[in-house]
Specification:
This protein is mainly alpha-helical. The protein has 3 domains: 244 residues, Growth Hormone, Chain: A (Up-down Bundle); 210 residues, Growth Hormone, Chain: A (Up-down Bundle); 72 residues, no CATH class.
């Protein structure tokens, strides 16, 4: 195809189009600008998205205080949906838009929606001022955020991949992938200093708004950079040739050849990659603070440090994927995750809280209960009710990060905990005096656990082996770096240009939302059911194994795809 053919469409071919048609080695100035703009947008959108998690306490106090339980339950479900369910929906909406009207315009739309929603959260009045309208408006902004990020992430990978030659596509995509954790990093680097400078009271009162309002600065910079870019040359090519899809969603899901690729992408390419990434980036934070009782400040510093130190590995992974193939790198990453996740988390316990490890050996905990009344405590929204004595006892131990062994009791008897020779009687949350019993139970459990060496407060900082914990976190994050770059590059190459935006957005966000998003809730439920703080890790291990099998049996290498 010639430049004048593209020019007839009214598109600028002086930059991206010419660079695409050329085959000169190395990255061109245009490709570098494309990578910079895509990376900035990704950082910005994830910064916005992670702010809600980092400021969850302040947001709950401001928007949900005083709300009645029924409305609170509904809004909690909607808030959860905004964070996860809206992402694949946004992927389909903006994927279709990107395949019909172009990547650049879609890029601008997603970043504008995300930026406007985030800035608005910083201005919203609280429940005390406007009542129920406050949480409703907050949930609407969250839905807009989820919708926008659903269109942004896939678009960033596609836009970079469709500029330049295919021989270094993995390396170019890796620059965008490497900035994914940058959104989390930036949110922490903005929030933590503000908390320190303003003080806890002032920050909780109004200071929490500043990180949301600050996002307008990043938005304006990102818009300025993106407006200077050209349309994707591959999109211009199919537009000139009349090869565009008229119904990208129907073509993606309605044709078996494409639907089969979607299934391979979900369960082979993305399931293991998403869970391994979330396991290293987010579940480690949950495990250190909740199970091992490392204080939040130390945990944040360790996670930030490990994230910065492992960032170059995304680039190395992209280079490796260009050399040996995406499929081989992805299989290798899943294999490493399956083999080493469990021993590395056990090593975290040894180096982060050795007193806990010692207490488990010297005074094992035994729970005696009627196991027929025990529920599987899967509660991703935090609103479910588990009232049996078995549930209250096992959830208390799981939240405390304590392992236990199980013993059966006759039907109807109240569950109890034995630590050494001491026994702590459980209670039923449905009892009329449940609040009194709960307070007594919690106090007695804490005292008994402390007596036998189980620290109930934060882990002793003097006992934390910081260098070893940091190395372990880096190892876990390196698995995510290996699989994530290879997976998104492979996704881009699995589908034809005419439906690419739509097709990759569906498996990417489905896997991220369902498998990655449910990781903490699923792991906690498994921990509470089994009595082992490591048992929840079988979830990411199993996902990695399944992904490997699907890749080996059904996936084709895409390195030399167009």
């Amino acid at each position: 195809m010639k430049n004048d053919q593209i020019a007839l469409l009214g598109e600028d071919v002086s930059g991206a189009g010419k660079e695409y048609l050329a085959t000169s080695p190395g990255m061109t100035p245009v490709e570098k600008r494309v990578i910079a703009a895509s990376s900035m947008g990704t950082i910005f959108e994830l910064y916005d998205f992670f702010l809600v998690g980092a400021l969850s306490t302040e947001l709950a106090k401001h928007f949900f205080s005083g709300i009645n339980p029924s409305a609170g339950f509904i809004l909690a479900l909607l808030g959860f949906a905004a964070g996860f369910v809206m992402r694949p929906f946004g992927g389909m909406v903006f994927g279709r838009f990107g395949d019909l009207v172009g990547r650049k315009r879609t890029f601008l739309a997603t970043i504008l929606i995300m930026g406007a929603a985030t800035f608005t959260i910083g201005l919203l009045p609280g429940f005390a001022s406007i009542g129920l309208a406050s949480p409703i408006l907050f949930v609407i902004m969250r839905m807009l955020q989820g919708l926008a990020i659903g269109g942004e992430f896939g678009g960033a990978f596609i836009y970079v991949a469709e500029h330049g030659s295919k021989r270094d596509r993995g390396f170019r995509v890796s620059w965008v992938v490497s900035t994914g954790a940058g959104g989390l990093l930036l949110s922490l680097l903005v929030v933590l200093p503000l908390q320190h400078l303003l003080g806890e009271s002032t920050f909780s009162d109004w200071g929490w708004r500043l990180p949301f309002l600050f996002s307008i600065v990043i938005l304006l910079i990102s818009l300025w950079v993106r407006l200077k870019l050209d349309e994707s040359p591959e999109f211009l090519r199919i537009k000139a040739e009349g090869g565009m899809s008229k119904a990208p969603i129907a073509e993606t899901l309605g044709q078996w050849k494409n639907l089969k690729l979607i299934l391979i992408a979900v369960f082979g390419v993305m399931m293991g990659a998403a869970i391994i990434f979330y396991n290293g980036q987010l579940y480690t934070m949950f495990f250190l603070t909740k199970a091992l009782k490392v204080d939040a400040s130390t945990t944040n510093i360790l996670i930030i440090s490990a994230t910065v130190l492992t960032a170059p590995l995304y680039l190395a992974s992209g280079k490796l994927a260009d050399l040996v193939g995406r499929k081989k790198v992805l299989i290798a990453g899943c294999l490493l995750g399956a083999l080493f996740t469990m021993p590395l988390f056990k090593a975290l316990t040894h180096y982060a809280n050795p007193s806990l490890e010692k207490a488990e050996l010297e005074a094992p905990i035994v729970v005696s209960a009627d196991w027929e009344e025990c529920a599987f405590q899967f509660d991703p929204t935090g609103t479910a009710k588990f009232t049996s004595s078995c549930d209250t006892v096992t959830s208390s131990l799981a939240k405390a990060g304590l392992n236990y062994h199980s013993m059966p009791l006759p039907r109807g008897q109240v569950a109890r905990i034995q630590i050494g020779e001491d026994v702590v009687e459980g209670y039923r949350a449905s009892d009329t005096d449940a609040a009194t019993k709960a307070a007594k139970f919690s106090a007695l459990l804490a005292a008994t656990a402390s007596k036998h060496g189980y620290g109930t407060g934060t882990a002793n900082k003097d006992e934390i082996n910081i260098p070893m914990v940091l190395l372990i976190l880096m190892a876990l994050l390196s698995f995510g770096a290996l699989v994530f770059t290879a997976s998104v590059t492979m996704l881009v190459e699995m589908f034809p240009t005419r439906i690419r935006y739509t097709a990759i957005s569906i498996p990417y966000h489905l896997a991220s939302a369902i498998f990655g998003g449910f990781l903490p809730a699923t792991a906690f439920a498994i921990m509470a059911a089994t009595g082992n703080i490591y048992s929840g890790l079988w979830y990411p291990v199993a996902a990695a194994v399944v992904s490997m099998l699907v890749l080996v049996l059904f996936a084709k290498e895409t390195k030399d795809a167009t």
